[in-house]
Design goal:
The complex is a heterodimer of chains A (681) and B (245). With 681 residues, chain A is mainly α. Chain A is built from 26 helices and 13 strands. By secondary structure, chain B is an all-alpha fold. The chains are: A mainly alpha (681), B mainly alpha (245). Chain A: One of its GO terms (cellular component) is RNA polymerase III complex.
Chain lengths: 681, 245
């Protein structure tokens, strides 16, 4: 995989920031030069082979390099894994996911895996027990100190240590494995994807085709076989759910137990502090586990979609949406399919959940009655929404859009205004009203006067008990309809079983996210006119220079200035089509176009650059207050509060640098969100 | 060819080639950091973001204190980050810490005893590794066997030497000969073993150093004042080494 200059710089900085200089130097050269052996690495880095071996061992341990042993030449090649290096920047986010879903213990496990790259179950458990023992000793010491000071009067009440830490740990690890946040690993995982492909291709060619292939048909055949083999290989590596110990998901025999969350609550655990009981699950102590970045990205994407739903529709609807996404999360192992491994030709309709499942899974604490106002039913036409949209092709969607959008928009307006929570949804004038643009000609239906009269129906004072199940299910269905009716296409109805089945077209919604971010960027950089021109070109394709001023309702001169400016930035480009063989300027058509893919690549690159500048700035800022920071790192002061040993001036400096760190890292986190939208989701 | 399609016949709008006496040349250098035309304050961090940053920083801190982290060895920390080519990139790092020793700041002082230890190469001794996952050529690094090879090599050289000496002095194999051989074998020849043991030695070493400083040197020889013009010498006598007490 070729990397841009800025991506290389960023990855090198990230490795440097986390694992130090030696590893970073090796990693940079590997990124720049491709795969290398130790002698060549030594030549390029000027490091001694001994140092290189140590550095490479760290990199292998942290999954940052692939290696490949070539038996013919008896050499080992090393190859950088830039994806894993980039994921270092998301470590905070991933730990936060684990914490918010499964509690502090899970956060600790994930954090430990980040520290050690990969580790065995045995090590994780023993590490946890050792830490608990240490904490216990510390607590006892403090207790003694406190008692010494206050006499024996006070006996501090503290949470007792869990009686069976090993069992607890095993259960938690199983839970994490089931959710897919961590995955078991085998030695083969260190072979880079290309090497794996080559190896299998070679073997297939020998075994099935007798060493050589002829013609395109056989070629295709071989490709397909390799793909299948790779697919099987990957599924072999995945964690197989044990499944027997706990009730299966979607098992409605007992009525309520729909999800793990509910199960946990029924175990008598407090929601905020997930206290796990030992359910007897034991994992193979020698099993190796590591973090599964692909699945983490899926979870991050779901979080992003929930935020979007919350911004566009409302908090309650977002909660319903979140529960729905959680239901299908298990069946979504990764965000983007790999054309070399996954079958991209005939995809089945994505993962599905039904309204009934969702009703069972949704936490009781979500008040589904809120969030939607009501409007007299004859004013709403839900026929279009109830209809199951079978197709998932974009072409078909575009066809439907023309007629369906009128009703949907109307419905949206009606419902959105009547947001019972008082959360007035942000209706983005740009994304919502593309009918406002002069070049859009299907703008004949939406008139404010057609808006139905809305009455608020407040469910809040109603007691929970009175709310029966049917009612709740209907309310949830309304929320789902609302999500399906939104312009972004949060959901798509695809069946009628269980009061309606729903699926999510992730591709469409990701595209929506990308377009939204791109529009923001264009508006910031090129103003209203540039933004309008770009969106016109995106919608209508290549446009003749002479048409543009008429369509955009801007003067010719302004259009030209703006387009030239945008061309300089690489956002738009021009294609010349000569009308005759003379190729004179007067007889040539100039077509302007806006290449979405190219713009997102440019954007991505500038984000990488921006992120590395942030890290460099962070480094400089830290160096400026080196003295104060060195003080906090002293071995005797590690666990002390800075207030105890610093004077006011030093404290001020420390707080200042901490504030700067926070704002820079916050900025990096937000940029990372953009990278995720354009690259990973 | 590339500029043909820009659609700006006749150059920039309103610019001609005629002489304009009223025009004034801007000769002032432009500002190095001109104010940003469209700078906005970012939205304040949400609680979730703050937690994420907290986790990130905690993880970083833990890695940095751990055995796998290697400290920077840049000679000049303030050098510009931009480099041209591999050579320049490599040259900014120190290759041999002994050759790059800075006599002014490099000598360890008593107050530095609490500074965190500097890892030059990652330490693998503290934790178990699953060797199966590593390529074979990295195994010596994981086991600390890198030193063994050196030792073997030197042992062999010693043997050769011994054999040679034995050949020469074959006639009088006495106690002296045996003693010399013993000495030769007992010479600490192992670089890496030294490095591993450094931890234990360091503490002891500091003790010795500081004692030595206190008693015999007394700050008489201060490298930084070596080329001063002698004026401070009178007070330097008393105050030179006081910092360490």
């Amino acid at each position: 995989m070729s990397q841009s200059k800025h991506a290389v710089e960023l990855c090198a900085l990230l490795v440097d920031e986390t694992y130090g200089e030696l590893t970073s130097r090796i990693f940079t050269i590997l990124l720049r030069r491709g795969r290398l052996t130790i002698p060549l690495l030594s030549k390029h880095t000027r490091l001694s082979p001994n140092k290189l071996r140590h550095g490479l061992a760290v990199l292998v341990q942290e999954n940052l390099v692939y290696y490949h042993f070539d038996e013919d030449t008896n050499t080992t090649n090393y190859e950088a894994n830039p994806e894993a290096a980039y994921m270092l920047v998301r470590s905070g986010k991933i730990v936060e996911i684990a914490r918010s879903r499964y509690g502090d213990l899970a956060a600790e496990i994930v954090g430990n895996l980040f520290l050690s790259g990969h580790s065995t179950v045995k090590e994780l458990v023993s590490g946890y027990i050792a830490r608990l023992a240490e904490a216990e000793a510390m607590r006892k010491r403090e207790e003694r100190l406190a008692n010494g000071n206050n006499g024996q009067s006070k006996t501090p009440v503290q949470a007792p240590a869990p009686h069976n830490p090993a069992g607890q740990m095993h259960s938690m690890l199983t839970e994490l494995l089931e959710s897919g946040l961590i995955q078991p690993l085998t030695g083969k995982i260190f072979l880079s994807p290309t090497d794996t492909y080559d190896k299998i291709a070679k073997k297939m060619l020998q075994d099935d085709f007798g060493g050589s292939i002829k013609g395109t048909k056989q070629k295709e055949d071989l490709k397909e076989k390799i793909r299948e083999r790779l697919f099987n290989l990957r599924s072999e590596r995945e964690w197989k759910s044990v499944g027997k110990k706990r009730p299966l998901n979607g098992n409605h025999a007992n009525g309520i137990n729909g999800s793990n969350k509910r199960r946990r609550l029924s175990n008598g655990a407090v929601n905020g502090d997930h206290y796990f009981e030992d359910d007897g699950t034991r994992l193979d102590p020698n099993m190796l586990v590591r973090i599964n970045y692909e699945k983490c990205t899926v979870v991050l994407r779901n979080n992003r979609l929930v935020t979007l739903a919350s911004n566009r529709i409302g908090a309650t609807t977002a909660q319903v949406y979140e529960a729905g996404l959680r239901l299908i999360e298990k069946t979504v192992p990764r965000c983007r399919l790999d054309p070399r491994i996954d079958d991209v030709k005939d995809l089945p309709d994505g993962p599905v959940f039904s309204t009934m499942e969702l009703t069972a899974a949704l936490s009781k604490s979500v008040r589904t009655g809120t969030g939607i106002g009501s409007v007299s039913s004859d004013k709403i036409d839900t026929r279009k929404l109830e209809k199951a949209h079978k197709s998932r092709k974009r072409v078909d969607e575009a066809e439907v859009e023309g007629e369906a959008s009128s009703d949907e928009d109307e419905l949206m307006d009606d419902i959105a205004v009547a947001n019972g929570n008082g959360n007035i949804p942000e209706i983005d004038p740009d994304s919502d009203g593309h009918g406002d643009d002069p070049f859009d000609d299907d703008d004949d239906i939406r008139k404010p006067s057609k808006r139905a009269k809305v009455t608020f129906q407040d469910h809040l004072p109603k007691p929970e008990a009175a709310e029966n199940r049917e009612n709740r299910m209907l309310q949830i269905k309304n929320h789902l309809l609302l999500l399906a009716g939104d312009d972004c296409g949060f959901l798509r109805k695809c069946g009628t079983q269980g009061l309606g089945q729903w699926t999510v077209d992730f591709e469409g919604i990701t595209q929506y996210l990308q377009e939204e971010e791109m529009d923001t960027m264009l508006l910031e950089r090129f103003g209203k006119v540039g933004h309008r021109l770009a969106r016109m070109m995106r919608k209508l394709g290549k446009l003749d220079e002479k048409q543009l001023p008429n369509l955009a309702l801007v003067r010719q001169k302004d259009v030209r200035t703006k387009l030239a400016e945008m061309q300089m930035a690489g956002v738009v480009d021009i294609q010349e089509v000569p009308r005759d063989s003379g190729r004179t300027t007067s007889r040539t058509i100039f077509l302007w176009y806006f290449d979405v893919e190219r713009v997102s690549t440019i954007l991505l690159d500038s984000i990488y650059k921006n992120m590395s500048r942030c890290f460099q700035r962070l480094d400089i800022e830290r160096r400026r207050v080196q003295d104060v920071l060195a003080l906090t790192e002293r071995t005797d002061l590690l666990d002390e509060q800075p207030e105890k040993y610093m004077d006011t001036e030093q404290l001020n400096m420390l707080h200042e640098i901490e504030e700067k760190e926070e704002s820079l890292l916050g900025h990096i986190g937000r940029l990372d969100e953009l990278v995720a939208i354009f690259r990973d989701y | 060819m590339a500029g043909r399609g820009r659609g700006r016949p006749g150059g920039l709008k309103g610019v001609t080639w005629e002489y304009d006496p009223s025009i004034k040349l801007e000769s002032k250098p432009i500002e190095l950091f001109p104010p940003h035309p469209n700078l906005k304050r970012p939205a304040p961090l949400t609680d979730k973001e703050k937690r994420e940053i907290g986790h990130y920083k905690r993880l970083q801190r833990q890695v940095h204190r751990g055995p796998l982290y290697t400290q920077p060895t840049k000679r000049d920390a303030t050098a510009p980050a931009k480099t041209f080519g591999e050579d320049q990139f490599n040259r900014q790092y120190s290759t041999n810490p002994k050759a790059d020793f800075d006599p002014f700041t490099g000598v360890e002082t008593y107050s530095q005893r609490l500074q965190p230890k500097v890892n030059e190469i990652p330490k693998f001794s503290g934790r178990p590794f699953n060797k199966e996952l590593f390529p074979k050529e990295l195994w010596p690094a994981l086991e600390g066997e890198a030193g063994n090879q050196v030792r073997k090599h030197l042992d062999r050289a010693n043997e050769k030497k011994a054999a040679m000496m034995a050949g020469v002095k074959d006639k009088k194999p006495d106690d002296k000969h045996a003693r010399v051989l013993e000495k030769l074998f007992s010479v600490p020849v192992d670089e890496d073993a030294e490095e591993v043991d450094e931890d234990q030695e360091q503490d002891a070493g500091i003790e010795v150093d500081s004692n030595f400083d206190d008693e015999s040197m007394g700050g008489d020889y201060d490298a930084e004042q070596y080329f001063d013009n002698g004026e401070d010498n009178s007070e330097g006598e008393g105050g030179g080494g006081d910092d360490d007490y």
